[in-house]
Amino acid sequence: MKSTVEQLSPTRVRINVEVPFEELKPDFDAAYKTLAQQIRLPGFRPGKAPARLLEARVGRGAVLEQVINAALPNKYSEAVTNADLRPLGQPEIEVTKLEDGTELSFTAEVDVRPDITIPAFGELAVTVDSIVITEDDVAEQLHSLRARFGTLSGVERPVQDGDFVTIDLSATVDGEDVPDASTAGMSYEVGSGQLIDGIDETLIGLSAGGTGEFTTALLAGDHAGRDAVVSAVIGTVKERELPEADDEFAQMASEFDTLEELTADLRERIGRVKKVEQATAARDKVLEALLETTEIPVPEAVVKAEVESRLHDAVHPFDHDEDKFAAALAAQGSSREEFDTSNQEEAEKSVKTQLLLDALAEAENTTVDNEELTERIVYQAQRFGVSPEEYVQQAQQANQLSAIFADVRRGKALAGVVAQAVVTDTDGSVVDLDELLGRGPATAEADDEGGVTVDENGVIEGETLEAEAAAGEQNS
Q1: Which residues contact 80 (CB under 8 A, 6 or more apart)?
Q2: Which fold has domain 2-112?
Q3: Residue 336 contacts by C-beta under 8 Å, 6 or more apart in sequence?
Q4: Is 151-241 a CATH 3.40.720.10 domain?
Q5: At what angle do helices 60-83 and 51-58 cross, to 10 degrees?
C-alpha cells in the first residue's frame, strides 16, 4: 500500500491511498466465508460452497462492494498511522479508482490536530484578588449555621421576606389553564428568588388564605416564552426562629465549647474557600493568557460539531421546538441571533482550549495514572449522586471514558503551567499555590489539613476540599 498526504489547511489534510489487489486477499476470504454461511447451495454443506459458485450466485459487484466496505477503514487507519497524523472526527472517504484484480485507490479528507507553538511558561504573569476575610463574611456563615438549626413556627400575620409558606399555584395563558405550570402544597422560602419572577413581590403582604396574581413569562413547557397570569394561594405562613449565637449554640452545632472557637474555625474555613477561589482564578487567568498569546488554528468541522451539540442541548428541554426556544430566549431578554453568535464564540473557544491543553500535555509528556483517573471518577459520581461503578458503566455506554481521561490529562497539564507562571495578588505578594496544585486533579479526599465544602444552606462544612484550581475542568 502507498499513501501520500496533502496539507489542505493547518487543520485539514487529504490522504491519497493506493492498495494493490493482492493486499485485499484477507478481505476477499472473509467476504466469501460470510457469504458461504448465508447462502445454501445444493451439494455443499453450510459454509463449504466454493468462492466461484458463491460469486456466480450474488455477482462480482456484490463481492467487491463487501470487500471494499471492509477494507477502507483498515487501510485508512494504516495510512493515518504511517503518516503520524492525529485525526479529529470522522474522515470523508471517496473511492477514486477501482480496477478489479489490479488496484483500489481512494482519498480521505479529515481534520487533524494542528501544530501549536507553546509560549514559555515562565514568562506568564497574572494577578488575582488578594484574600480578604471580613467580619461580614464570618457573620454570614454564622447566620447560615444558625439557620440550619433554626425552627419553624406558624404565625398569624402577613408574609414577610424570609418566611416559609405553602402555596398552591395555577397559571393561564390567554384564559386557558396551563396544567404543567400548576402545583399544590409547595413549600417555598419567600425572598429566595428560586421560583419564578414576580412571586416574591406578590407573596409579601398576603396572609394565610390570601390570593395574589402576577404576570410572568413561562420558561418551559408548551407555552414557553408566553406571558402567563399566575395565581398564588397562601396555605400556611411560618417564620424561622434562630438559636442565640452563644457558647451553648457552639456546643450544639460543632465540636467547640465556645462561640469564639466556633467563629475562629469558620474564619479558617472561609480562608480555605477563598484560597481555592484564588487558585481557580489563577488557573483561569493563566489559561486566558495562553489563549491570547498562542496561535491556534481552528478546525471548522470540529467547531461546527461543537456548535450543533450545544444547540441540541439548549433546544432539547423545549422538545426541539425552535419557536418555543425562541420565545424562551425572548422572555429572558435575548434573541436567537444573539444566542447563535454567543454559541459560535463559545464553541470556538472551547475547541481552542482543548487543542491548546492537548498540545500542552504532549509537550510536557503529561501522563495520568489509575489513581488520578479513579479520583476523577469518584468525584464525578458524587456530583451526579451515583456510585462510581454506575458512573463508569454509564460512561462506557456513552463512550465517554476516553473523554474523562482526556479531561484529567488536560487539567493536569494546565496545573503544571500554573505552577510555573508568576502569580501575584493585588497587594503585590506572590501567591503560593503549591499545596493546591500538588494534590492532583479533582481529588475528593480529605488531607491532614482538612478542606471545605458548602452545603445547600451556604454553610461551609466538612473536611473535603476539591482542588478545583488544579482540575482544569472544561465545559465543553
Answers
A1: 15, 87
A2: Alpha-Beta Plaits (3.30.70)
A3: 322, 325, 326, 329
A4: no
A5: 110
Q: What is the CA 4 to chain-centroid distance, rounded?
A: 38
CA distance 459 to 188: 19
E runs forming strands in 79-154: 87-99, 103-112, 125-128, 151-154
Average predicted confidence (pLDDT) for the chain? 86
CATH architecture designation of domain 121-126+251-316+342-471: Orthogonal Bundle (1.10)
> Nine-digit cell at 397?
455506554
- The arithmetic mean of pLDDT across residues 165-177, rounded, is 92
Which candidate, 361, 347, 399, places its Cα nearest to that of 86?
Answer: 361
Amino acid, res. 73: P
Residue 457 parent element (H or E): none
User: What totals of helices (H) and strands (E) does the chain contain, helices first?
Assistant: 15, 14
Kindly state the greatest CA–CA separation across the chain.
Answer: 98
- Show the CA angle centred on residue 215, arms to residues 212 and 219, nearest 5°: 120
Distance between CA atoms of 274 and 268, rounded to whole angstroms?
10
Phi-psi region of 193 (alpha: psi -120 to 50; beta: other; left: phi over 0): left
Cβ neighbour number for residue 102 with a 10 Å cutoff:
10
- Report the C-alpha gap between 99 and 19 in whole angstroms: 11
Domains 2-112 and 121-126+251-316+342-471 share a fold: no
The predicted structure's pLDDT at residue 298: 92
Task: Give the type of residue at 273.
Answer: V
Can you tell me the distance from the alpha carbon of 22 to that of 322, in angstroms, rounded to the nearest whole number?
53
Residues 6+ apart with CB under 8 A from 228: 171, 172, 173, 178, 181, 215, 216, 217, 218
| Cβ count near 446 (within 10 Å) | 12
Residues in CB range of 253: below 8 A, 6 or more apart: 145, 146, 148, 149, 262
* 362-391 per-residue burial string, b: 16 or more CB within 10 A, e: under 16: eeeebebeeebbebbbbbbbeeeeeeeeeb
| Least trusted range by pLDDT, from 103-112, 116-125, 193-202, 456-465 | 456-465
Query: Taking the domains of the chain in order of start, what are their residue ranges?
Result: 2-112, 121-126+251-316+342-471, 151-241
Residue 91's pLDDT is 93
Rounded average pLDDT over 392-404: 90
Strands (E), 27-150: 87-99, 103-112, 125-128
pLDDT in tens, 292-327: 999 999 999 899 999 999 999 999 988 888 888 888
Tens digit of pLDDT for each residue in 436-461? Answer: 665 443 333 333 333 444 454 445 55
Higher pLDDT, 349 or 218: 349
Whole-angstrom distance, CA of residue 67 vs CA of residue 39: 17
